[in-house]
Amino acid sequence: MSEIKSQEEQKVIFEKIRKDILRPVMSISYGYKLWVGILLTIIAVAVWAYYYQLRDGLMVTAMRDYVSWGMYIATFVFFVATALVGMLISAVVGLLGKKWIIPISRIAEMIALAFVMMAGIIIVVDMGRPDRLLNVFIHGRFQSPIFWDITVVTTYVTISMLLLFLPLLPDLGIMRNHLKKDIPAWQWNIYNILSLGWVGTPNQYKILHRTIRVLLVLIIPVALAIHTVTSWLSAATLRAGWDSTIFGPYYVSGAFVAGSGAVLIAMYFIRKAYKLEEYITDESFNMMGKLLVLVSLVYLYFNLNEFLVPGYKMKTADAVHLHTLFVGKYAFMFWATQIGGLFLPIFLSLFRKMRKPFPMMLIGIAVVLGAWFKRFIIIIPTLIHAHLPIQNVPQEFHEYNPTGIEITITIGVIAISVLIFTILVKLFPVIPIWETAHEKGVDIEKNL
Amino acid sequence: MHTIYKLVIYSSISLLWVGSVQAQNWTISEEERAMKMTVEYTEAIQTEGKAIFEKSCKMCHGDLIVSPVNDRVLPIAPNLGATSIQSANSDGEFYGKISNGKGGMPPFKAALSPDDLWKVIAYLRTSYAAYVPQGAAAPSEAVAIFEGTIKSLTTTFDTAAKQFVVQLNAVDLAGNPTYAMNVKVDLLFKTSFGYLPVAKGVKSNSKGQVLIADPNIQPDSTGHIIVKAQTADLAVSEEKVIAYGSPWVWDSPLNHRSLWGTSANTPIWLLATYLSVVLGVWITIFWAILQLFRIWMLRER
């Protein structure tokens, strides 16, 4: 907090912050409509494709007896991974008291919520008989990592929602108080109800701060659990490429990389579209770039362990698997992912000149693309090598080339998550007004 | 051309060929015909010969099975255990035939050394009871060879002595019941995937019994196994279910609390961990929701 300011000064500062941050909430730009239109079109096409999948069954995908987890599950892992950033940014960095995180934290939470919700949906998409979804719960086994995964994903969704909602309360109060004339009545009513009658008394702030703190601590183990359990879905088997003891931390560190990339992209476009250069500053990109380097180095370290150690021993099945990745069928995808999605981003982000908004956004895209393909590489090549020696299976079992329908549906589900995010950043202030004001020396308990 | 005609023409050509091949005669030189066995006619040599036979001959000729005449039809290789073949060939003639071959029978002159050839012949002769060893094979001391006929054999398990007893029922040349001594017997045990040898080529004692020590086999759940006893020349055999060991109940691990069992059989530690962690987390979540309610209670009225 800066030095004590006069009441008048505080009013002016607060007024400006409020106006700046709430401006996008009050109007819908042409670009925004176009963007939503594009997303809706993609989703509509995907729904049409999903109709075919529902009608004809999973036969319309390229999944067969060997590769029974394809693009969908790879995307599931990608979603869960990216969603982990909410916890990284708000809990880990936030609890450390890093101030630069304030304008970014809500973006991270919104990404987390949008992605983890879709993680649940794409599992249903992967089911041949979604009408039997309930059986997963009725006949679930406590011993099964899949059951644990369902548990942690639902828990994480709930906590993410709370962690998005709680810090939003003071802002909702502000919106209710100041926006009545500027927005349609229905929208104001939403804010009014959601604000839970927030007036910002010291008592309310006390409860708010304590609850947020508890949840921030709680979300750390839950978030670690969600991605560790996701990794166990594979690691608890004997398959080459999955049978690894470091899969938990390997996934978690990879998740931080993916999430940081997603946040960088979102930061860039939100800042541009909402003209928030004053809040999401070049310094924010600089710091996010440094964070990206840090988490990427950890991930690189786990990659080294994950590939060098089995590569040194070359056990029979591992050797076949590693050959496919290093020099075989998946070599191009593997090296493009490792170099374009990991080595290069680390290397480039080391330079101060690169840690500027535009280059960081490009690096973010490379990282996110790399993250998706990395999940593909983790899931599919392993499955292509049959675990049991079976002979004379149809040729199609030995390969996996996603069908058009599969790709369309996957892109559609990703589009839904982006749409959810797009709606969230429209409905609610992307930057916490009260925290930002507080940082600039405004006594937020008085100035509502 | 019509397929039928083709078939007729081809089959008559091949019949002609087979006929001409069979019409050929064995080329045996006078020298070969006069040869005498150069290896000893002992069990050790016969066993060596058997190994060679199994490697080089069995794929065509099959097992040596004692029968009066060859029971297989050419061009399939004949059953060399047939008494008609055994009696028709002198050792030298066998030697010549195997060395030079004929038609479907390949010449082994280059593949096998003379010693090996004789060893195989020594083995062939084990299926010929009336064989009189000659040359180096002539016995230095007489081995009591059983000369009667084995009628049947029957297997029992002697629980006290912990051994299988295979009893041979035989008659002598005059047709009177007798103990068959020095007859080789194999004992096999039936598994899901075929027969597993328990003992091979064990000789019967003076009471016509073959005693085989308990090999500790896992019986089925009712305490039975299926054994097959056969004379080494495969002339007589018997397959039989016998009581062996004690019945047992398979205690499936899935009936206990285990990681791989059903949900109802979740290990307690897992259930306790899962429930307490989930409960703890969700109590905290509900507490947080309650805080929302408290904030709402503090609103300005």
Question: Helices, strands, pairings?
Answer:
The complex is a heterodimer of chains A (448) and B (301).
Chain A (H helix, E strand, L loop, with lengths): L6 H20 L3 H27 L14 H13 L1 H11 L6 H24 L7 H6 L6 H21 L2 H11 L6 H10 L7 H34 L11 H28 L7 H32 L2 H11 L4 H19 L7 H28 L19 H24 L5 H7 L9
Chain B lengths: L2 H21 L6 H4 L9 H14 L1 H4 L21 H6 L2 H10 L13 H12 L23 E10 L4 E9 L5 E2 L5 E8 L2 E10 L5 E5 L10 E8 L5 E7 L24 H30 L4
Antiparallel strand pairs in B: 1-2, 2-3, 2-6, 4-5, 4-7, 7-8
Helix pairs in contact in B: 3-7
Helix content of chain A: over 70%
Number of strands of chain A: 0
Order of helices and strands of chain B: HHHHHHHEEEEEEEEH
Distance between the first and last residues' Cα of chain B = 106 Å
| Largest interface, chains and sizes | A-B, 29 and 26 residues
How many strands, what sense, and barrel or not for the largest sheet of chain A? none
Short description:
The complex is a heterodimer of chains A (448) and B (301). Chain A has helices at residues 7-26, 30-56, 71-83, 85-95, 102-125, 133-138, 145-165, 168-178, 185-194, 202-235, 247-274, 282-313, 316-326, 331-349, 357-384, 404-427, 433-439.
Task: Note down, in words, how this protein is organized.
The complex is a heterodimer of chains A (about 450) and B (about 300). With about 450 residues, chain A is mainly alpha-helical. Chain A has a domain at about 25-285 and about 405-445: Formate dehydrogenase/DMSO reductase fold (Up-down Bundle), CATH 1.20.1630. Chain A contains 17 helices and no strands. Chain A has helices spanning about 5-25, 30-55, 70-85, 85-95, 100-125, 135-140, 145-165, 170-180, 185-195, 200-235, 245-275, 280-315, 315-325, 330-350, 355-385, 405-425, 435-440. In chain A, helix 5 packs across helix 11 and helix 5 (about 100-125) packs antiparallel against helix 16 (about 405-425). In chain A, about 45% of the residues are buried. The model of chain A has no long low-confidence stretch (mean pLDDT about 90). By secondary structure, chain B is α+β, with helices and mostly antiparallel strands. Chain B has two domains: about 30-145, Cytochrome Bc1 Complex, Chain D, domain 2; about 150-245, Immunoglobulin-like, CATH 2.60.40. Helix content of chain B is about 35%, strand content about 20%. Chain B has helices spanning about 5-25, 30-35, 45-55, 60, 85-90, 90-100, 115-125, 270-295; strands at about 150-160, 165-170, 175-180, 185-190, 195-205, 210-215, 225-230, 235-245. In chain B, the strands form two sheets. In chain B, strands 1, 2, 3 and 6 form a four-stranded antiparallel β-sheet that branches. A four-stranded antiparallel β-sheet of chain B has the order 5-4-7-8, with no helix packed on it. In chain B, a hairpin with a 2-residue loop joins strand 4 (about 185-190) and strand 5 (about 195-205). The mean pLDDT of chain B is about 85.
